[in-house]
Specification:
Blueprint lengths: L2 H8 L16 H10 L10 H8 L3 H14 L2 E3 L6 E3 L2 H30 L2 E7 L4 E7 L14 E2 L5 H8 L3 H9 L12 H14 L2 E4 L6 E9 L5 E10 L8 H18 L9
Antiparallel strand pairs: 1-2, 3-4, 3-8, 4-5, 6-7, 7-8
Length: 275
């Protein structure tokens, strides 16, 4: 549905022209309609052309363009006075673009991780209060742990949840626990101890869930970063606990962390070095 469709649905009656501007249910919607007027076929437009496309008075469109230019969403050619879309839109769409790209970019690295370890690998993204599987390469072994694409993890001890929370402000994590949007530590483990663990996760470069959410499963996750160095996903390895003794946790953790760094590098992330 385009912005025009939303506009028509929101309008409770026929518009009336007052000679200056068409009434709209939202100035924001009109601003978005201005942005939608640009296309591959018409990447550069003048005020008159845009006003005709969006059915608004030129003075209204001119004011909107001035505001959008200040925000970096459009750029004005000083010579012609015409406009094109600005680079600010790339930054605005960055999180969405990262999520669309990361799955495609991560797949060969997940395949390599599963081939190297013999265990199931997955790509996780954060949706605001839980970690979600968006890609998975199952273990070739008969006994394995898998989770279908779309599976959600909302428990603090999950390794992928630990990765995402490790870079979230403590106050935001506390809010998720308090509102019960995320299952938090029980009385046997204080929140203070948990936040210490998250600090360790940041320093180490990967998180471990050694049977804390399921006695039969081990999960190890590491961060994936985009071209800005921002956390956008996590690589996760899951395996039956009987195949992963404690002595293997560090080597598997390093393997998962390396996979996360390789995916990050393919996304253009700054080079990360660790001892």
């Amino acid at each position: 549905m385009s912005v025009d469709d939303v506009d028509r649905l929101a309008d409770n009656g026929p518009g009336e022209h007052d000679g200056d501007a068409k009434p709209s249910p939202s100035v924001l919607l009109n601003g978005l309609r201005v942005l939608e007027s640009f296309s591959i076929a018409e990447p550069v437009l003048g005020v008159t052309e845009i006003a005709r496309k969006v059915d608004l008075h030129k003075s209204s469109v001119s004011r909107m363009l001035a505001t959008l230019e200040k925000a970096g969403y459009v750029e004005r050619d000083e010579g012609t006075g015409r406009y094109r879309l600005g680079l600010g839109l790339i930054a605005l769409a960055g999180p969405l673009l990262a999520n669309l790209d990361v799955r495609r970019v991560a797949q060969p690295e997940l395949e390599e991780l599963t081939s190297r370890t013999g265990e199931t690998s997955a790509l996780m993204v954060w949706n605001g209060h839980e970690s979600v599987v968006v890609e998975q390469i199952p273990s070739p072994k008969q006994v394995k742990h898998t989770a279908a694409v779309g599976t959600r993890y909302d428990t603090y001890a999950s390794s992928s949840v630990q990765v995402f929370l490790s870079e979230m402000p403590r106050a935001e994590t506390e809010r998720l626990f308090d509102r019960r949007l995320l299952v938090g530590p029980d009385e046997q483990e204080s929140r203070g101890e948990y936040f210490d663990e998250l600090s360790d996760t940041r320093d180490r470069g990967y998180a471990v869930n050694d049977g804390r959410t399921s006695i039969e499963e081990v999960g190890i996750s590491a961060p994936v970063r985009d071209h800005r160095g921002v956390l956008v996903a996590a690589v996760m390895l899951s395996a039956p606990r009987f195949r992963v003794p404690e002595s293997m946790l560090e080597s598997l953790g390093r393997a998962v962390a390396e996979s996360g760094r390789r995916v990050s590098a393919r996304l253009g992330a700054p080079v990360e070095t660790r001892d």
